[in-house]
Amino acid sequence: MAMDRRTFFRSTAGAAVAVAAMTTIDMRAWAQVVEEAPVELKGSLCNVCSSHCGMYIHVKNGRPWKVTGHPDHSRSRGKLCPRAHGGLYWIYDPARAKTPLKRVGEQEFEQISWEQATDEIAERLKRVLDQHGPQAVFYGHNPRRSGVVYGNRFMHALGVNTIQTHNAACNTARVLGLAHTFGSSYNADWANSDYLLFIGRNMGEGIRTSTALAFGEAIARGATVVCVDPRLNESAAIAEWVPIRPGTDMALLLAIANVLVTEDLYDKEFINTHTIGFHRFERVLPQYTPEWAEELTTIPADRIRSIARGLAAAAPAAAVDTGWKGAFGAAYANSTDTARAVAYVNALLGNLNKRGGIRISRGASLASLPFQAPETPTGPRGDGVGTDYPLATGHGLPHLSMEKAQKGLVKAGIIRHHNPLRTIPDYDHMLAGYRSLDLLVVIETHMTETALEADYILPEPSFAEREEVIEATGPSICMRTKAIEKVHPETKSFDEIITLLANKMGVGRYFDFTLDELNEALLSGQPFSLADLREAGSIEVSVDQPEGVPELNTPSGKFEFYSQRFADEGFNGVAEWYPPETGLQLRENEFRVVHGKQAYHSHCATANIPMLAQVTKDYDTNRVWLNAERAANLGISDGDYVRFTAPDGRSGEARVKVTERIHPDMAFAPGAYGNRTPYFELSEKLGGFNPHDITAYRSEPIVGHTMMSELIVEVKRV
Ligand code: SF4
To answer: Which domain does 199 fall in, by range?
Structure first.
């Protein structure tokens, strides 16, 4: 039977009516049974954002009752954010993918068996590999352990090395910028710092539970905490807010570096012993005065000087935070060099592996797998990493893949727990790419926008119904455990699906083990068993942290102010100022659109969860923020509907929040809304605007990220 959204819901609703007709429930008796039922605590991991905080699922009568934070998990530290509580709804959500589905028309599917689905997928995948080679196939996922261990192994067994995550729309610039200076990412030691500078990061909304706690603790301890952001966000509201023109963060950082050097406030011992290229940096630095930066950033020169002097006075117990997705994640043409400039300031402070500075931390480690592994393919990738973009990271370029799909160069893909049609800019571009493929398989728990474009949807159990590969997160070794029985018996976990497909593709020898055997092997050498970990959910182990400055993971083994790799590829050897690609000049009715998270939503995945959607509704938070004075000049009042029109003519509509809490140049769009799957009915009713619908497809020159904030729109009241 062909199944579209209407028949999909009707079949679920019909079953519910039939059950209701057979029984009459005594609510008082029911409540008593629920109250008195014994509670079982199942240690597990949250799945509502990629932090995967440790949690307990409290189970009563075989159903999850509530969740609480796991005290022995380094990301939750006994607490959870609102999204985790809302996430319980996903388990019984009518919009779940429940059986294998095959597409028979636009957003129309028929139920098929696993046997048929995996036979047909294997046959079509083999055909693509035979006719077009492994470069024509990609695998995209949210990069957690099961996805890596099973997904990457399967792809490598097929000779495919185009493996992608969401990072090109998240933190790729930061990762690359830090890799080419410090040699790796690092963490600021918030717990012991006396002066913390955050740029474009908001712990109150882009929540990782442990970092939100640590941020509050730093404020309570009396550390100076400065939040540079175009918006008076929740973090800035309890710290010192420094508003900045969006896209100019690198200018601020270079000016801070200028003050540190010209006022002789930097750590010469660190610079002389542990860095290369400082003198080249010194030569470009004189032009970057605080007065020069004031013109660009709109931050007064004296404030820039006071930040630099404050950092220097507290050094080495001072740090510029690494940020995440904001100003130097994947936002602007200058984001990668902005990340390098963040590293420059930390190097000048000489704070590496110093108390209160920054730390290249070690985490718990797991044993390597003893099973036969396929060779890692070494041929060119199908998404331009290493060729079109020699410095791009292994996280890949899904948007470039879809350009190549439209050109007939990419032909098939498998996507798991990833919804690029909502999280990567330019919906039309991504959609055209997916529709050009010979085969798209989506492994999902829900009928997402990307799933609806698949030829086959393979349904997974929700996070509470499946066990997964063990993870090491900071000092915690942890695992997702199966807290309840499957709600939809036809669903299969990722390890089962990949093992099935591998057998059908003739590479089953690489999956000749059970999930339990794999997890036991990973725990080899630990003083506890798989049964112990399953019982606990998360166990903290002791990990030695390096003291002093180690040899860094750069070509020189030192911190690199000057990068020969950058110079060899035609980029600035030393990071120097250049503006966003879309410039900084705006006409009277133009705004730069920047989007960001909300504390109670996780990208576009949660707006259909009733209790979280209710928060949005009660506090009216799916509006786009506009500066009060500029809105008044355009005759726009709080709550008005406005139209945002991009240079290519595409447009979207949203209600606005008129506020003085935002820089005049910026329109802030909360990034949780604007779902386009008809299966998310509540989200559809809630409405909202997703800037990715009107952001043009483009790639940043150095690392190839999506430049999500290179969007200038005309704003008009409707
Ligand atoms: S930050 Fe919140 S949503 Fe993300 S994993 Fe932790 S509790 Fe879950």
So the answer is: 172-357
208 C-alpha vs ligand 1 centroid, how far in Å? Answer: 6
Same domain membership, residue 234 and residue 328: yes
Q: What backbone torsions phi and psi does residue 670 show, to the nearest 5 degrees?
A: -60, 135
Ligand 1 touching residue 609 (CB < 6 A): no
Residue 480 beta carbon below 6 angstroms from any ligand 1 atom: no
Would residue 556 count as lying in a domain? Answer: no
Residues 73 and 194 in one domain: no
Q: pLDDT digits over 534-559, tens only?
A: 999 999 999 988 789 999 999 999 99
Mean pLDDT of the chain: 94
- For the question of whether the overall pTM of this predicted structure is more than 0.90, the answer is yes
Tell me the CATH number at 618.
2.40.40.20
Q: Is the pLDDT of residue 344 over 50?
A: yes
Distance between first and last Cα of the chain: 44
Q: Is residue 526 part of a domain?
A: no
**Ligand 1 centroid distance, CA of 699 (Å):** 30
* Contact 53 CB / ligand 1 (< 6 Å): yes
193: Cβ below 6 Å to ligand 1?
no
**Of the candidates 168, 149, 144, 159, the residue with the CA atom closest to the CA atom of residue 396:** 168
pLDDT at 2 over 80: no
Q: Which of 92, 110, 127 is the last residue of a domain?
A: 92
> Does residue 195 sit in the same domain as residue 343?
yes
pLDDT of residue 82: 94
pLDDT of residue 73: 94
Q: Pick the residue with more confidence: 585 or 34?
A: 585
Q: Is the CB of 84 under 6 A from ligand 1?
A: yes
Angle at the Cα of 441 from the Cα atoms of 168 and 444, rounded to 5 degrees = 75
Question: Distance of CA 549 to CAs 74, 364, 640, Å?
Answer: 24, 20, 55
- Answer yes or no: is the C-beta of 672 below 6 A from any ligand 1 atom: no
* Lowest-confidence region among 2-6, 317-321, 334-338, 656-660: 2-6
Banded model confidence at residue 393, pLDDT cuts 50, 70, 90: confident
pLDDT digits (tens, 9 = 90+) for 86-115: 999 999 999 999 999 999 999 999 999 999
The pLDDT, as a whole number, for residue 11 is 53
Measuring from atom 2 of ligand 1, which residue has the nearest CA? 81
User: Rounded distance, CA 402 to CA 478, Å?
Assistant: 35
Going by C-alpha positions, the residue among 314, 567, 382, 363 that lies closest to residue 477 is: 363
52, 83, 85: residue to mutate for ligand 1 pocket, most atoms within 8 A of CB: 83
85/181 same-domain check: no
Of 315, 333, 357, which one is at a domain's C-terminal end?
357
Torsion-angle region of residue 142: left (phi > 0), alpha (psi -120 to 50) or beta? beta
Q: Assess whether the C-beta atom of 213 lies below 6 angstroms from ligand 1.
A: no
Question: Does residue 383 fall inside a structural domain?
Answer: no
Alpha carbon distance 559, 156 (integer Å): 34
Q: Is 77 in the pocket of ligand 1 (CB under 6 A)?
A: no
User: Using a 6 Å cutoff on CB, does residue 51 contact ligand 1?
Assistant: yes
Check residue 10 and give its pLDDT. Answer: 58
Q: Do residues 714 and 589 make contact, with C-beta atoms less than 8 angstroms apart?
A: yes
Amino acid letter for position 221: R
Residue nearest to atom 7 of ligand 1 (CA): 80
Count: domains in the chain: 3
In a shared domain, residues 317 and 179: yes
Give the number of the atom of ligand 1 that is nearest the alpha carbon of residue 602. Answer: 3
Residue 307's CATH number = 3.40.228.10
Split at pLDDT 50, 70, 90, the class of 35 is confident
Confidence at 3, pLDDT banded by 50, 70, 90: low
- Determine, yes or no, domain membership for 515: no
How far is ligand 1, taken at its centre, from the CA of residue 80, in Å? 6
Q: Distance (Å, rounded) from C-alpha 83 to C-alpha 611?
A: 9
Same domain, residue pair 231 and 337: yes
